Amino acid sequence: MEVNPPKQEHLLALKVMRLTKPTLFTNIPVTCEEKDLPGDLFNQLMKDDPSTVNGAEILMLGEMLTLPQNFGNIFLGETFSSYISVHNDSNQVVKDILVKADLQTSSQRLNLSASSAAVAELKPDCCIDDVIHHEVKEIGTHILVCAVSYTTQDGEKMYFRKFFKFQVLKPLDVKTKFYNAETDEVFLEAQIQNITTSPMFMEKVSLEPSIMYNVTELNSVTQAGECVSTFGSRGYLQPMDTRQYLYCLKPKKEFAEKAGIIKGVTVIGKLDIVWKTNLGERGRLQTSQLQRMAPGYGDVRLSLEAIPDTVNLEEPFHITCKITNCSSERMMDLVLEMCNTNSIHWCGISGRQLGKLHPSSSLCLALTLLSSVQGLQSVSGLRLTDTFLKRTYEYDDIAQVCVVSAAVEVEA
């Protein structure tokens, strides 16, 4: 009968432990009213308990720390730290010990070992220690592969490895909305939700714009000469809570003059989010490049550069329009027509030639009009005709003005 030889035991032992900070101890309060049978016994026991906070015994708060009892959760953007120890359990000297730690993800394999050099020898009851760190950048299954190779006193080469599997979870849910303004400005609303089970301290949420834009954060207000966050003095985001951040992107001067370029820009920038949890563990996420839908202005774009907020009834007022040839190839020959409405009357010559407008070029036009009706009135009735293509572009509801009686004093 053939008997399989027993499996040879290794001389070295491998231990891998995740390094993470402790948590605050929480106690479960047990109390009762004084008229109940235990009387003040439960309350006195809580006061004598060293883990409770003096004066807040029934609030489940603790002053002690608890060491981690399990592997815990790992979230995207956090730093995974692990302690690796190889111990010589035998009574002989082991030589040429090489410890290697790799992290296998769904897309790549990373070497996390601090050193690739082999240790010459390891005496009995001695160990080789190493600490590895890795900023987690992928969601899903991760496998830590620890491999150990060594040589026995008899010259036999030995090798073994162990696998440690863990999941990386998503900490935040980020949603974005874009609003394209007529002045080429872009407003970005970012909704950030904490989808973990513990509060987060939002250290920084900023927008890194693309090369064509400057950004202004609209998440603070000025009070008594100081800049105060709109979220208050406490930057905590509770589990499943959502916070909305707002940013305004304005084209840089050298790009704002090139309407055709700005019109087609879809890449806006990326969000940089930094937070802290529990006892200060830091996490960071940076989104991919955010993209908007390019605004569809058509061939010709008309925008308002200047218009008064309030005007007097039946008194002329002035506006300034900007007309842009959004085509990158075709020249236009434009004719301006001004059509009166029930409340808005244009002052000037209708049907006048504006001349030729080169591709991606603009011209400013000063116009005069008056209103015969009080209230909030819509500026409408402009028509642009391209004589080359015999195509007419209509512009209504361009803007609104408040029309008041001349006898009413308007506060500045």
UniProtKB/TrEMBL annotation:
Domain of life: Eukaryota
InterPro entries: TRAPPC13, TRAPPC13_C, TRAPPC13_M, TRAPPC13_N
Trafficking protein particle complex subunit 13 N-terminal domain sequence ranges: 10-168
Protein name: Trafficking protein particle complex subunit 13
Entries under Pfam families matching the protein: TRAPPC13_C, TRAPPC13_M, TRAPPC13_N
Segments forming domain Trafficking protein particle complex subunit 13 C-terminal: 308-403
Highest classification ranks of the organism: Eukaryota, Metazoa, Chordata, Craniata, Vertebrata
GO cellular component entries: TRAPPIII protein complex
Family according to the record: Belongs to the TRAPPC13 family.
Subunit-level organization: Part of the multisubunit TRAPP (transport protein particle) complex.
Domain Trafficking protein particle complex subunit 13 middle span(s) in chain numbering: 172-295
Gene from which the chain derives: Trappc13
